[in-house]
Design brief:
2 domains, about 70% helix, elongated, transmembrane helix, membrane
């Protein structure tokens, strides 16, 4: 059963890649993904240890670096919590408070919505310390505001992404200091 689920997930991943990036991408994924089947028959630097298909499918799907490995663990353990925290701040009005404060400070200046995005992301980042939560909380207001005054959508999203990254190093959270090796260096 695990092999069947792994094969179905691999097929779905390759098919979604084909739909998003085209047929050459799907062929490249198939060649690279299936090369371990015949690795012991390849010449020179391409030679390697051969593995059976069920091992390859399980490794790509359930392995540490597979689709349900470390990336899924990070989303499940870390990202979801920060997104829930951002939702709570928005629901309680704290997110709107910081946006209104930033708008009062910078809204009247040229390029105001972009400056509001930076200030609001700094305020919000001082509470959350998480870039994804910051983008969700502040970007839902600042990106439409920037698009409304003529910023291209990709430029507005880039401003918000950079502002939210910078917001994570605002005091008092300073997410960089959460890593013990950085804290010892200071």
């Amino acid at each position: 059963l695990a092999f069947v689920l792994a094969a179905v997930m691999l097929f779905a991943a390759i098919e979604s890649g084909r739909r998003l990036a085209g047929f050459p991408y799907a062929i490249l994924c198939l060649v690279a993904g299936l090369s371990p089947l015949i690795a012991d028959k390849l010449p020179g630097v391409l030679w390697g240890v051969s593995f059976p298909f069920d091992y390859i499918a399980a490794s790509f799907t359930y392995g540490d670096h597979g689709m349900l490995g470390l990336p899924a663990q990070v989303i499940g353990n870390i990202l979801i919590g920060f997104l829930i925290f951002a939702g709570m701040l928005i629901a309680t009005g704290a997110g709107r408070f910081f946006l209104n404060l930033a708008l009062a400070l910078m809204g009247r200046f040229r390029g105001g919505p972009a400056k509001v995005a930076v200030i609001a992301s700094g305020f919000f980042g001082s509470l959350s310390g998480a870039t994804p939560a910051n983008i969700v909380a502040t970007g839902s207001v600042t990106i439409p505001a920037m698009k409304g005054i003529g910023y291209p959508p990709h430029y507005a999203a880039a401003i918000e992404a950079i502002a939210s990254n910078g917001g994570t190093i605002m005091p008092p959270v300073m997410v960089v200091l959460r890593n013990p090796s950085y804290a010892r260096a200071l």
